[in-house]
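In this supplementary section we document a worked example of the pipeline. Step one takes a protein sequence of length 310 as its only input; no multiple sequence alignment statistics are reported here. Step two produces a three-dimensional model, which step three serialises into structure tokens for compact storage. The input and output of this example are shown verbatim.
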Amino acid sequence: MNDELIIISGPTSSGKSGIALDVAERLGGEIISADSMQVYRGMDIGTGKLTKEGMRGIPHHLIDVIEPTEDYNVSKFVNMARKAIDDILSRGKVPIIVGGTGFYIRSLLYTGDTGNPGKDPDYKNMLRERAEREGLGKLYEELSAVDSEASGRIDRNNRARIIRALEYNHATGQKYSEYCDSVELPEPIYKARMFVLECERYVLYERMDERIDRMISEGLVEEVRGLISKGVDSKCTSMNGIGYKEIAKYLSGEMQLDEAIRLIKSNTHHYAVRQSTWFRHQKDVVIVDCRDRDKASKDILTALGNYLNR
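The serialised model returned by step three reads:
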């Protein structure tokens, strides 16, 4: 494939959406969301979705495409994203992948055919049963004990990856993080220019906290209450997203609202650290300082001079 993808990624609150809009307007691009939560209809405030007006007329794909009672995983994302890419390219437009879910982005670019060692179906089924019976937190603690590097990279609510890491450790006696670092990736399916937005951690933390306070004032509690009334509960993948699970616990009487807000902020900070860690392990990325949005947009456009001169 001769056409390149543009990828704009980075930790939460790094300004990906706004910068992607600037780039898309200049290049005639269309945006494909690589966010694991914005796919869900009715989950708007807690996921930070842009409004229709905020999209500035730029077509967006993979937003509001499934119900919050449905499961969404990397396989579904890859299938849907590749269809969107083919459609965008067929119309002579530029696909711009935007999001902070690094595992989704890598799976989109590569076939993932690395032999997939360390399989033990019986042990995997046992872990699944334990997750249901004892809770995923227990498995996450066990992973932290045997492979702290892997647990540092994996979201504590990502059931599939926690189980996979424990399965690999059990089957091989080795750390899953070391296996991941040693794998030689195949040739990518697409050529891509990947930009990662970064800046000092304290700046990101301030942005995150302000964003979370804004979500609360805009009605996050009411949004979660409405979802629960429609049957979206803790068994749904969607309700395990940061912001939703904490507010759900507040609504069930498990904690006070101020404690739920504190947890949302803490969990968001930790998630951003994991995102940054993942991106630092990737090859051939361009780091862009995101403190100044206008400058970040210009830096990316300068690096993409080949598109500007088409």
